[in-house]
Automatic annotation (TrEMBL):
It comes from Sporosarcina thermotolerans. The chain crosses the membrane at residues 6-27, 34-51, 57-75, 87-105, 139-161, 173-196, 202-222, 229-248, 254-273. Pfam families: ABC-3. Its main location: membrane. Keywords: Cell membrane, Membrane, Transmembrane, Transmembrane helix, Transport. GO terms for cellular component: ATP-binding cassette (ABC) transporter complex. This is Metal ABC transporter permease. PANTHER family: ABC-TRANSPORTER METAL-BINDING PROTEIN, METAL TRANSPORT SYSTEM MEMBRANE PROTEIN CT_070-RELATED. Signal peptide: none annotated.
């Protein structure tokens, strides 16, 4: 595959995985959790480096996942103590991210580990860091990890589709049916963390947040059916990735930033033109007259 092809494939995998996970974040009214985890994984990455002194490999992935799960646990704990959920997310997010920034500034020295890279990523470097995979040959490491994560997300979402649907729309009903609501919550947060971490190094926090929230929000405007919303969100994620890449090439700017911008364009089109919940449809939809 060409250099450009690997970039497009990697970005599309981010769009697919984040698009599917993002639907449940939106429906559970936990959109800001995506922002929190995408930033607090920085603490896990820095901590893993300080322990292992390695910038690549499994230790950093594990460290980032642990930081993501720690974020979810702390938010849930504060919420259980009576703190509003949005306030819990804000407190945990800013505190853990600030600790990560302080550690970078004081402990990492001249190592290429900085906040700018964490926020924006650098997807153009992805094709250069390859690994050998049986039957597939040499492929970029980030692409291979994202392929695995996408497979995990698909398996978990569709294997427990009924459970996700019930716990998302009516947690009380789910509990009465014997579904372990809290366990499902933490499994879901694990999926969010894994997806965020896998996408983080390649595209940075800004695009991860954009891909987790915006395609799902756009899909929500087009349909009220969960299965259709999942498909549309994944489609919007891929479209944003590919469209954003060509926008970046056209105006010679940040690829990740352009992909995040493309998600905003898709949302704006959906907000204006959706036949179900779009802005224009409110004016052209015929009024229902009382009998």
């Amino acid at each position: 595959m060409s250099y450009e092809g690997w970039i497009l494939l990697t970005a599309s995998l981010v769009g697919l995985s984040c698009g599917i996970i993002g639907v449940f974040l939106i429906l559970r009214k936990m959109a800001m959790m995506a922002d929190a985890i995408s930033h607090t994984v920085l603490l896990g990455i820095v901590s893993a480096y300080l322990i292992t002194r390695e910038l690549n490999g499994m230790p950093m992935l594990i460290g980032a996942i642990i930081a993501g799960l720690l974020t979810a646990v702390l938010v849930q704990w504060l919420h259980s103590l009576g703190v509003q959920q949005d306030a819990s997310i804000g407190v945990v997010f800013t505190t853990l991210f600030a600790i990560g920034v302080i550690l970078i500034a004081t402990k990492t020295g001249n190592v290429h580990l900085d906040v700018q890279h964490a926020l924006m990523g650098e997807i153009t470097f992805v094709p250069w860091h390859t690994m050998g995979v049986p039957l597939l040959g040499e492929i970029p490491q980030a692409t291979f990890i994202l392929l695995i994560v996408f497979a995990i997300v698909l398996i978990m979402i569709f294997a427990f589709y009924k459970e996700w649907k019930i716990t998302t729309f009516d947690a009380a009903l789910a509990a009465s049916l014997g579904i372990p609501v809290l366990l499902m919550h933490y499994v879901f947060m694990t999926l969010v963390s894994i997806t965020t971490v896998a996408s983080f190094d390649a595209v940075g926090a800004i695009m991860v947040v954009a891909m987790l929230i915006t395609p799902a929000s756009a899909a929500y405007l087009w349909t009220d059916r969960l299965s259709v919303m999942l498909g549309l969100s994944a489609l919007f994620g891929i479209t944003s990735a590919i469209g954003g890449y060509y926008i970046a090439v056209w105006i010679d700017t940040s690829i990740s930033g352009s992909m995040a911008f493309a998600t905003g364009i898709i949302f704006l089109i959906s907000f204006i033109g959706s036949p179900k919940h779009g802005y224009i449809s409110r004016f052209i939809r015929p009024e229902t007259l009382p009998e």
